[in-house]
Amino acid sequence: MNAPVYMDNNATTRVAPEVVEVMLPYYSDLYGNPSSMHTFGGQVGRAVEEARGKIASLLGARPDELIFTSCGTESDSTAILSALQSFPEKRHIVTTRVEHPAVKNLCESLDKLTGHKHKITQLPVNSDGTLDLGLYEESLTDETAIVSAMWANNETGVIFPIKEMAEIAKSRGILFHTDAVQAVGKIPINLSQVPIDFLSLSGHKLHAPKGIGVLYVRKGTPFVPFIIGGHQEHGRRGGTENVAAIVGLGKACEMAANQMQEENTRVKALRDKLEDGLLASIPSSLLNGHKTLRLPNTTNISFEYVEGEAILLHLDRFGICASSGSACTSGSLEPSHVMRAMGVPFTAAHGSIRLSLSVYNTEAEVDFVLEKLPPVIAQLREMSPFWQSEHKGKVGSSQCKCSCS
Ligand SMILES: *Cc1c(COP(=O)(O)O)cnc(C)c1O
């Protein structure tokens, strides 16, 4: 098997070779500034506008509704801070407990950023990661400035009912932002049919480079820039454009539109084969997230009584790249906020791993993981005092044998 067997596409994706190819001229001959008056710069400016058109077409948006940013995180911050500045008297934000840190940590630190006290409602999710529309509707008040809810979850792939949520917000006169970083390119999005005010996307999650993002701002939605400087992006985001990355993102969006079908058939079938195979061959394994309201490329499975981090280290020896639902950066091995919000039991939350595929994955790779992963889990359980005491009647040590403590 050629290493790496890359199944961590929700963390970042391979830049498509076709994308690299269209970018290269902007790192050599075509180095003009797109804002320049001369023909040399003008042709670069035209390439930027051509890319904008391709991205708009994938989203069902108007090209002039797109603002290029440096990443998904900047897009998220820009949308939320803009709404709060547009309606300074409204100090309530509705979001969810499972947002990406780009939204979650921003909302949790708004008081510090704006000097105002904000009331934040972080909506709970069901045990399958789905959202209760009734609870959402009840959470909205006259004080609510903005709703920010992700289109699809990066850890589980679970999809929120964004169309319904946006319609409810609109009927109440509340701005609506969606972090669609994981959704764009994987599931159809048509902004001419969904009354969203702001949408964030990021290039590196759909086979474009890192360091390029887009914020969609609906025509007519009040907007306050985040980065103030030159007149670029019609004064909505200062700073000379990352031309090569923009051109690459345009190409990536064009390819995503053409590959959407494959993503939802071949890639989905590979994901299902992988998921069904693991669940069937490994005892005490459970799927995290709704079975069908989910991205076609993502599976998140818990293996009880083992540590996700330990699984990843073993997979890494085979060149298999995956991701775990626990973050051991703090040394505490806390299950992720998403697993906690879903109420995944403690014994399972620690052993969750995410496998996220792309159009570059093959059936041979899926078979390889299906061959290598089950023995890894069995081996780790042999060493787990908790598993031993549950399944072999032995008394386990009370000490946690975390892999990274
Ligand atoms: C990756 C990701 C982001 C952040 O995007 P960057 O371009 O890395 O800043 C935001 N939201 C979600 C859901 C993501 O998966």
From TrEMBL:
The keyword Metal-binding applies. One of its GO terms (biological process) is amino acid metabolic process. InterPro entries: Aminotrans_V_dom, Aminotrans_V_PyrdxlP_BS, Cys_deSase_NifS_bac/arc, Cysteine_dSase, PyrdxlP-dep_Trfase, PyrdxlP-dep_Trfase_major, PyrdxlP-dep_Trfase_small. Its cofactor is pyridoxal 5'-phosphate. Keywords: Iron, Iron-sulfur, Metal-binding, Pyridoxal phosphate, Transferase. It catalyses: (sulfur carrier)-H + L-cysteine = (sulfur carrier)-SH + L-alanine. Gene3D superfamilies: 1.10.260.50, Aspartate Aminotransferase, domain 1, Type I PLP-dependent aspartate aminotransferase-like (Major domain). Pfam families: Aminotran_5. Its EC number is 2.8.1.7. Residues 5-367 form the Aminotransferase class V domain. PANTHER family: CYSTEINE DESULFURASE, CYSTEINE DESULFURYLASE FAMILY MEMBER. Homodimer. Belongs to the class-V pyridoxal-phosphate-dependent aminotransferase family. NifS/IscS subfamily. This is Cysteine desulfurase. It comes from Thiovibrio frasassiensis. The gene is nifS.
